Amino acid sequence: MSRIRNPAPDATRRRASTNRKMETIMRLARRLPLTRQVLADQLETATPSQMEFMDQWMNAEIESRERSKRSRLLKQAGFPAVKTLDGYDWENIRFPVDWGRRSLESLEFASRPEDVVMFGPPGTGKTHLAMALGRKACLEGMTVRFFTAAGLVMRLLHASTEGKLDREIASIGKARLLIIDELGYVPIDEEGSRLLFQVITNAYEMQSIVYTTNIEFSGWGRVFGDPNMAAAIIDRTVHHGRMLRFEGESYRRTHALMQ
Prior knowledge:
Helix content: 55-70%
Order of helices and strands: HHHEHHEHEHHEHEHHEH
Number of helices: 12
Structural class: alpha/beta
Distance between the termini: 92 Å
Strand content: 5-15%
Strand order of the largest sheet: 1-6-2-5-4-3
Largest sheet: 6 strands, mixed
Radius of gyration: 27 Å
């Protein structure tokens, strides 16, 4: 009577062999970035199924890298909350005659680069829109940094005290889009104004800045404590910028639990 062979040991050996091969390939992958010529040579003799595998592998790798990049950009931007353009109410915004919502949402201004001033009373959606645009820019691969004006000034003052001001300003200067929120909400002292002025002047024709503020240009001299400094900033902003005027009641007030 013939003995029935147990297939389990063979299956176990095959799995062990496959696992060893996978570990070897992973070690090689960590050591060797792809070289196009070597890849081209291998593709010359590859079967259709092997080419299909390579196509799927490379697309998966690209998608993984893009997800990682978007995640890194969002974290680096420093948004205090997640805001999107989905369902955003555009009714209370007055755009310039020659420039509208489509131009803003396309983020063309960040590529040129141009500035955007979002002016209006508190609670009318300025910060929400600024953060939503910044998030959209991150998802499209742009480097963005978000600060409140007071937070940026404190960061610069701290860097100056620590002897790291040049490094901090250089880091901020790498962003394609800089968002300065709540300009004018908190008074800025002379040293803070000087440091903020340096960041803004460095950005001129190099980065786009989105400002949110409840202070008209005529009041920026009070914000910076120096009319000449304010005039220089306004001159640069007007040269390559546009103003959006926000109107209406505060969203927070009309939707407040405490009535």
